Structures are given as C-alpha cells and as structure tokens.
C-alpha cells in the first residue's frame, strides 16, 4: 500500500510446503513447519532458517507418517520453547456431521538451544542467546518498509568481516532443536495458544486443555483442566483471562478458567452456526471471527455479569460483512486518523492518543482487507452515500448485481453491515458535478438503507463533508 517506500524481499526455496512460520527473536531465526517433504524418513519436519541467507541451520524430523498441524512459541520461565501439535493418522480429521474422527496426535515440546563454536572448533551449549538477544532484529520495522540494515549496501564491506551483524551466522553460532517432551493424545492437535504467560492451551479432537510446565521444567507438561465442545475444535485464542474456542459447527465459544478450582467454564456461545476459519479477540468482550463461507463478523458479550451468566447466553453480533473470500488470518493493527495538516494543529501526543485499533485480514486468494472503526454519525452519513453509489448508473455494479444483498449474505437479518470501502472510494474518483448528482439521486424506497439510519433518502447530503471524511481515511491507508 505504501508505494514510495522500498521493501527488501527475499525468496527462499526450502522444499516441501511451509505450513506455519514463526520468528524467534532470541536467535533471530525463522522457525518453519514443513509438510509434503520428499524424504524416505519423514514427510514433515520443523526447521530453523536463517532469514538473511535462507539456509536451513537445523531440523527436527517428525516420525514417518506424522504430519505437523500447529506450533507456537511458549514461555517457560525466562526462556521460550516450541510447542508442536501433530497428527499420527492419515485419514480425515472431521466427520461429515462435524464431530471429530477417532484419530491420534502428538504434543511435542522442543527446546531451542544455542551452540557456539569456539576457536578450537569445539561446541559449547548455552541456555540463552547471550549477546545475540541484544542484536537488532531484522524485522523490527517490517510494517511498511524494511530498515537500511537489510539492504545490500549496508550489510558488509567485506564478506570476511566477522563483526558484521547477520553475516555467516552458521559459522559463528548454531541453534539446535532438542526434544524435551512428547506424548500421544486422542485426537489431532490442531490448535495451540499461549495463555496468561504461564500456561498454554492445546486442542485434541473436540477437547482442549489448559497445560503448564511444573517448576518451569520443559521436560514435564501437566494438564490442569479440560473443556469439551460438541464438534471438532479448529482454533484457540486468548486475551488476558478470556479464552475463545472455535469449532467447525457451533462457531465461537467464550470460556473462563478458574485457577483455584482448576476448571473451565463456558460463558457465552455463538448465536449462529459457522465453520470458523480464524478469530482474534480485540478485548475480553469482543471477538472478530471469519468463516469458511467468506463472511466476517464482530461479536461481543452483553453487559451481564459472568457470575449470573449461563452457557445458554449468546454473543451479540455487532456488525457483519460478506467478503466473498475466506479470511484465513485475522490480526489487530493500529490506525491513526489524521491528515498531514493535523500535525500543525496538535502535538505528537494528541495524534498518538487518536490511534485506534483496526482489523487486518488476509484471504485465501491473497487479498489484504483492513477494517477501521468510525463513529455512529460517520457511519450514518457514509451508509446513505453507499446506498446511492450502489444504484446510481455511474457507480453501480457493472453486471447489475444487488450490492446490499451480496454484502449481507450468510449474515443474520437485522445485523448492521460493515460499509464497503471499495464502493465508497469511487466517490473520490468522480468530478464535482458527478458527486452532486450521486448525492442528489433519489432512492426507490426506505428499504434501500437500513431503517435505523437517521438520514432519510430525501435529506440533502453535504458534498464537502463526505469528501473530507473519505479523504482522511484514504490518505491514512495510502
């Protein structure tokens, strides 16, 4: 989206199919889970990759016929370990009814150990990265552009310069994956999630567990509590004490973990059936979830206290949007709502406080979709503009499709629709005369815009106000 910035990109051929990639800040290495390897001894492994050269420094091979499904970095004391979930079965994981098949999986804990070469060629083990933890991460400013440290002109004046950061990593130090713990579970381990800095969540079939490391020992894993759903669990995510569980039929379920009693309690459930693709918790009360039918929705808790709630309490759908593409990854981002002229009117602190949380979704087809929050007044204004753009001959869909019907597919009746930025951005491409013609266009009925809007179809819409609002959003995103 930023066209005037340079982004250094490198392409590495690692072999197989990379299924998941993590960045280990202590070693400054990429941890890659690979499947479909052409190897006689294994078809899936976990490898450490140097992000500067693309070389595979070490690898942990899974058993023959075993497939990696999930992995996360989990903190144990002052260090991090890699928790891996696998499948030991070759058949399908889910029945046609949505229930979990009778399969087996493995939970693996790998320690990421540092081995440093001495001058005489011997190897010494280190429990921590030492000085490498103080080095600059090559991904410290990966959003927008890369720093000059990654450019070819700033790496090294000589290939033999050992003081250059990031050059010949494998000749000065080595990182190794060591098996610390392994156990077989009754189900494929499809989801793993850190929880409260001292636990982690892991699923197997239609069950998920709150696990921890007694005495910060990575060679021991203890299950403190178990929760069960009706259908196969696809993902786990957490925000502070709130746990969100997504399965393949009942959608998103909210849980709380009671440490004293070591019990999991279901608090809220999804009002709609959905095959969850991904989910992120914006806070303890709000979840953004995407499904395998191409829709995304924002769900939140009611104001009732958890002590008086029951598992029958439904989450409230705040808004929804049908993209037509499956959002396979959803993340939180930040959005500063200002123009360059605003810098002269306020200080940096004011602009920092004006930043808002946004939702960034990447789709299966390679699209990146950004959702930003707006006020209710701005929503009502742009909703009326979108209703006119959707039917005006200058901006209506070329094939004559019903824009409102398409964006509300798979969404419950009465749930507010998220506004379509692509449709609204057309307004800035029109001339002043065309903009006035669109805003003065008479709508056929009040049903074209939702009944709760405070702007009736006949009320005049100020052109300048619409242009200023859209320009602020357009400038911040571009």
UniProtKB/TrEMBL annotation:
One of its GO terms (cellular component) is nucleus. Signal peptide: none annotated. InterPro entries: RSE1/DDB1/CFT1, RSE1/DDB1/CPSF1_C, WD40/YVTN_repeat-like_dom_sf. It comes from the Eukaryota. One of its GO terms (molecular function) is nucleic acid binding. Residues 174-428 form the RSE1/DDB1/CPSF1 C-terminal domain. Transmembrane segments: none annotated. Pfam families: CPSF_A (PF03178). This is RSE1/DDB1/CPSF1 C-terminal domain-containing protein.
């Amino acid at each position: 989206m930023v066209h005037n910035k340079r982004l250094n990109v490198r392409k590495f051929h690692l072999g197989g199919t990379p299924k998941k990639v993590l960045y280990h800040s202590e070693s400054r290495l990429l941890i890659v889970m690979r499947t479909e390897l052409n190897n006689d001894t294994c078809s899936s492994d976990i490898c450490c990759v140097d992000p500067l050269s693309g070389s595979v420094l070490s690898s942990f091979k899974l058993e023959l016929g075993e497939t990696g499904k999930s992995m996360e970095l989990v903190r144990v004391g002052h260090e991090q370990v890699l928790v891996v979930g696998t499948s030991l079965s070759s058949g399908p994981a889910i029945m046609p009814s949505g229930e979990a098949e009778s399969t087996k999986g493995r939970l693996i804990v790998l320690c990421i150990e540092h081995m440093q070469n001495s001058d005489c060629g011997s190897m010494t083990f280190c429990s921590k990265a030492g000085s490498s933890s103080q080095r600059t991460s090559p991904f410290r400013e990966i959003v927008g552009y890369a720093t000059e440290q990654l450019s070819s002109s700033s790496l090294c004046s000589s290939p033999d310069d050992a003081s250059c950061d990031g050059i010949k990593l494998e000749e000065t130090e080595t990182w190794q994956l060591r098996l610390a713990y392994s156990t077989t579970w009754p189900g494929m381990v499809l989801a793993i999630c850190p929880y409260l800095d001292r636990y982690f969540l892991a699923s197997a079939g239609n069950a998920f567990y709150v696990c921890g490391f007694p005495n910060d020992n990575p060679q021991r894993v203890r299950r403190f509590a178990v929760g069960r759903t009706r259908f196969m669990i696809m993902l786990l995510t957490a925000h502070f004490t709130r746990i969100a569980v997504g399965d393949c039929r009942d959608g998103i379920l909210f849980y709380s973990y009671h440490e004293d009693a070591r019990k999991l309690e279901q608090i809220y459930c999804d009002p709609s059936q959905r095959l969850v693709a991904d989910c992120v918790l914006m806070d303890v009360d709000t979840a953004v979830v995407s499904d395998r039918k191409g829709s995304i929705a924002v769900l939140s808790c009611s104001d009732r206290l958890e002590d008086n709630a029951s598992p029958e309490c439904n989450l409230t759908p705040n808004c929804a949007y049908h993209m037509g593409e499956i959002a396979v990854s959803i993340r939180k981002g930040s959005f500063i709502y200002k123009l360059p002229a605003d810098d002269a009117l306020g200080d940096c602190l004011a602009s920092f406080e004006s930043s808002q949380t946004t939702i960034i979704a990447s789709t299966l087809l390679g699209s990146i979709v950004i959702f930003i929050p707006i006020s209710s007044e701005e929503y009502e204004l742009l909703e009326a503009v979108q209703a006119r753009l959707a039917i005006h001959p200058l901006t209506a869909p070329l094939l004559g499709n019903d824009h409102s019907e398409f964006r509300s597919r798979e969404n419950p009746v009465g749930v507010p629709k998220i506004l379509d930025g692509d449709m609204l951005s057309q307004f800035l491409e029109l001339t002043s005369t065309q903009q006035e013609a669109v805003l003065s266009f008479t709508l056929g009925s009040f049903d074209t815009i939702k009944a709760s809007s405070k702007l009736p179809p006949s009320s005049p819409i100020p052109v300048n106000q619409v242009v200023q609002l859209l320009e602020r959003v357009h400038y911040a995103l571009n």
